[in-house]
Amino acid sequence: MNDEFILNFISAAEGEKDPRNLVLLFSFFPNIAKELSLKDFAEDLFELVAAYFPIDFVPPKRDDFIVTTEDLTIGLRACMSSTDAFAPYCIPLLLEKLRLDNIDVKLESLRTLQACCKNYSGLSLRPHVLELWDHLRKEVIEGWNVDVEKEIIGSLSCLVETLERDRSCSDTVNILGSSALSECIPHLSNPEQRLMFPGAEVLLAVCRYSSVLSQTFCEKLIPLLVEQFSQKNQSIAKKNTLIVMAKFLLQGTQFSLFVAGQIEKREKLKNILDATSSLCRTTSVLKEALPPIWDTILKLVLVGDDLVISFLLCLKNSDIVELRSIGMLELFGFVKVDEVLKLGEIFYGRRTIPETFPEEVETFIKSSDRLVSFFSQNDLQHSPFMVYCVRCLLVRDDCPLKELRQDIAKHVVKWSLATEGDTCVKEKAASTVALFLLHSPSGEELDSYLCSLKQEINPLLGADVSAAVRLLGWIVKGLIMRGYPQDREWISMLLNMLTKEGEIGQKASECYKFLLKDDDSLLTLQGIRPKTYKLLYRQRFFESHIGEMVTMFNELGITRQGLRNNVLLAIFYLFPHLPQAVLKGHLKKLLPILVIGLKGCPSNDAATVAAGAVETLAFLLCHNVLQKLKVVLNDKKRVVRRAAAQARSAWDVFPSIILIAFEFCTTEIIKVFAKVSVINKDI
Amino acid sequence: MTTVERLDNINPLVFEKAENRITTDSDWDDLIYDPFDAREIFDLIRNINDPEHPLSLEELNVVEESKCEVDDSNSDVSVLFTPTIPHCSMASLIGLSIKLQLLRTLPSRFKVTVKITPGTHASEEAVNKQLADKERVAAALENPHLLQVINRCLNPKLRNRS
């Protein structure tokens, strides 16, 4: 019954030409081939469908049933690969078609081959393997078509996979492997030439699904590549070598080759990483080579972390921010706390903390309780990343942090007063103290903390002056930003510093630079201000203390020019951060200082600052006068109006006249006035 | 001033200057209100300098008293100016100077209209349009170079400094 059916089926279906019918045929043909026992009819059955291979079909223009070439191709492929029994006829047919020059035919044959490998058994493939390998290898070497190459690689992998499934085929696999090695190693040794990559791809394809082969290949190739890397001098050679190495590494991890037990492998990996780190200057190489190496590392992290650190040393010199941030996050989960900090060091260990960190990093640090307890217990070296961590931690809203806050703050104070180390870091540390003061909840805690802080600072003002004064400046800033009720004594402390001789006075006046500055990046993270922040703190500070500062200036006679300059500069530094309306109100007392002070401005930067201040004030003055004149222009008497009009015209010339009057002005100030004379926008 | 570029009008006609206004008794009486009149407006603009020549607009007859009109009660001022030649390229600059001077020296309640005397310039419509448009005037005055040139016209003292 079986045989009869098959015979009749073949005769019924033979010579079918209608595409719609063919689609139908292809859909149930695989079932027939699979379910029924074919015995002698396998060949005939195969020939039935093989006649249509490869499909060469152009759909007619008016096609009601819309049969596409794609449908037919896929259907046929399924048919040809449906059963193992077809193997002896199918493979030779495909080989024959592969030898043709037509690219489409080649592609189709390769795809069909892949489909076949999935369904056929290793045994049936075995006789043909070497022939196939021979041909495919030649195709890769001689071929110029990228698609064909891709398909070949796919086919090789499928082939080996199928062979692997069958225990009895292991010797075939080995033969294949050694043949591949002998063929491709010469190519790998010439990284400047085109065949390096195809060679590598072939090897990878062959060992992809076979652990035995992978092991052999990796053992042989990775040391070879490392050697080569250190020997070759041209960058392209190095680059290619590295990329191929990375691919093999990845392949190795698929089969967990680099497990703790196998110590030699770790050594090798370490060498590779050292080689990579020396290459890190060229970022383009890194971009391509690092991701596979990185994946390898990730798999390894569970096993040993010193490798991780070496790898990260590579990244330290690179500028690829994305890679850095990705790496960091994934590692955080695995690694211990001090590792986290070490990681941070490596990633961000440069002199300046970048203004924004990747969001995920911030979130991680903020939410990490381990970090908090770690900080409160240990004595840490200061560095940019540490400071950054502290900032993140201090900004957290929740309770557990409260008790630990002061401990953390102690660290920061210590860092800002340290005698060695980077000034930038110390500056950031000092500003972190301000941050801390800003974010602390009000109450006894804060008061007592400030008392103790005061006691700490006073003696220091004798030792490392600049650091202590700077810290004082930041403390004052933190306090005025939150409108702390007892800030007066701190402010007076800073003010008195201005009158001290030498370095203290100068540093103190420099503090005024940032005192009122709107430094969002320093004091708030992600632009969110804390509840304690007082919006109008600048105006309040200015209004309450400008009188004092002016009096101080006036009391210092001409004999103490240096100290006077300190006060003058301190006042001037405040100007840019205040709205003009506020300055206008104090114009009367500020102008005389301006005039007196300008005579004795010593250094050039002081002059530039003064120039800026003068510009503001001169502009205001002009504005004031012109406003008043405008009223007079509308007077009822013509003579009065005439005089006013003349005065108004004269004031267009005002700045030039000032120029003539103030002969002793420095060049900076002259430039400023020249600028102001063009700003006559009083319409 | 460089004379490398050809001046538009190398040899213009020069006119006589008017005499200064004579004050009357009523001018000094604090109780009487002196209305704005044409002569007052003329006084405001007659000393504006021409951008090219060291002569005032009055001397070149670019502005005349008869062409200045004032309506004090309606706060309206209208000035017609006559460029020296029909293709004068400085026409809009002169117009702008006049406008600016009036805007500065008149109380802000006045609406100032500056136009070219009809029939005396080739592109009078375009120039009139420019001068009437507040935004264009403001934009022009934001140009520092232009502003410098105009200030030199309005303030003879600045002429000597460059």
Main-sheet strand order of chain B equals 1-2-3
Tell me which oligomeric state these chains represent: heterodimer
Q: At the third CATH level, what is the topology name of chain B?
A: GMP Synthetase, Chain A, domain 3
**Number of continuous helical runs of chain B:** 5
Tell how many strands the DSSP assignment of chain A holds.
0
Q: Structurally, how many domains make up the residues of chain B?
A: 1
Strand content of the residues of chain A, in percent?
Answer: under 5%
| Share of helix of chain B, binned | 25-40%
* Shape by Cα distribution of chain B: globular
Q: Count the beta strands of chain B.
A: 3
Q: Cα-atom Rg of chain A, whole angstroms?
A: 41 Å
**3D shape of chain A:** elongated
Please report the first level of CATH classification, the CATH class of chain B: Alpha Beta
Q: Under the CATH scheme, which architecture of chain B would be assigned?
A: 2-Layer Sandwich
Determine Rg of chain B (CA atoms, Å): 16 Å
Give helix and strand order of chain B, one letter per element, not per position. HEEHEHHH
Mean pLDDT metric of chain B: 84
GO biological process, one term (chain B): protein maturation
Domain MIP18 family-like (chain B): 40-115
Protein name (chain B): Mitotic spindle-associated MMXD complex subunit MIP18
Family (chain B): Belongs to the MIP18 family.
Structure write-up:
Chain A: It is found in: Cytoplasm, Cytoskeleton, Spindle; Nucleus. Chain A: Belongs to the MET18/MMS19 family. The complex is a heterodimer of chains A (683) and B (162). Chain A is elongated, with a radius of gyration of 41 Å. Chain A is 74% helix and 0% strand. The N and C termini of chain A lie far apart (109 Å). Chain A has a domain at 536-677. With 683 residues, chain A is mainly α. With 162 residues, chain B is α+β, with helices and mostly antiparallel strands. Chain B has one domain: Fe-S cluster assembly (FSCA) (GMP Synthetase, Chain A, domain 3, 2-Layer Sandwich). In chain B, 31% of the residues lie in helices and 10% in strands. Chain B has helices spanning 38-45, 91-105, 124-132, 134-141, 144-154, and strands at 68-71, 76-81, 111-116. Chain B has a 3-stranded mixed β-sheet. In chain B, a hairpin with a 4-residue loop joins strand 1 (68-71) and strand 2. In chain B, helix 2 (91-105) runs parallel beside helix 3 (124-132) and helix 2 packs across helix 5 (144-154). The longest helix of chain B is centred in the middle third of the chain and has 15 residues, at 91-105. The termini of chain B are close together. In chain B, 30% of the residues are buried.
